[in-house]
Specification:
The chain contains 5 helices and 9 strands, in the order αβαβαββββαβαββ. The chain is α/β, with parallel strands linked by helices.
Length: about 160
């Protein structure tokens, strides 16, 4: 799947095998890696609307900032054809750990697969994402994910 990404890559990405990217890690493990590894980067692949209205991971305590690069663009939710270029501009070291975060772990997995195909050897999906699974009242952010784990975040 190297080269330019477009909407036709989505079914291939969703059908990816586990070895098509470095793997899945928990939000707690992501925080540990970001805290301990100076080259580790958090890439939030949610939409601009999600960053603004739901919030973003606050990495200031570890002197970092998340890279914000939409995997899909709201409202059409078309795959961002410039995604790989945006991430490559922010992360030049293809061996650095790149931790992809979305709402619940699906888009971030697709992004990890796509960047692995672009030559990044340590692209990880953060399971649970920023907001995690729905609870019994159909709300997110209480059961699993970055927010529910009590990791630092800020309103956009």
């Amino acid at each position: 799947m190297p080269g330019k990404m477009n909407e036709t890559t989505v079914p291939e990405i969703l059908g990816a095998q586990p070895d098509d990217y470095a793997g899945d890690i928990s939000v707690q493990e992501a925080w540990r890696v970001l805290s301990e590894n100076p080259s580790a980067v958090l890439v939030d692949v949610r939409t601009r609307a999600e960053w603004s209205f739901v919030g973003v991971a606050d990495l200031s305590a570890i002197s970092k900032q998340p890279t914000l690069a939409e995997w899909q663009s709201f409202p059409t939710m078309n795959v961002n054809a410039g995604f790989a270029t945006e991430v490559t501009a922010a992360v030049s070291d293809k061996a650095a750990p790149i931790l992809f975060l979305c709402r619940s772990g699906a888009r971030s997995r697709a992004a990890a697969v796509a960047l692995t195909a672009q030559g990044f050897s340590r692209a990880y999906n953060i399971t649970g994402g920023f907001e995690g699974d729905l609870d019994e009242t159909r709300h997110r952010g209480q059961r699993t994910g970055w927010k529910a784990a009590g990791l630092p975040w800020a309103q956009g």
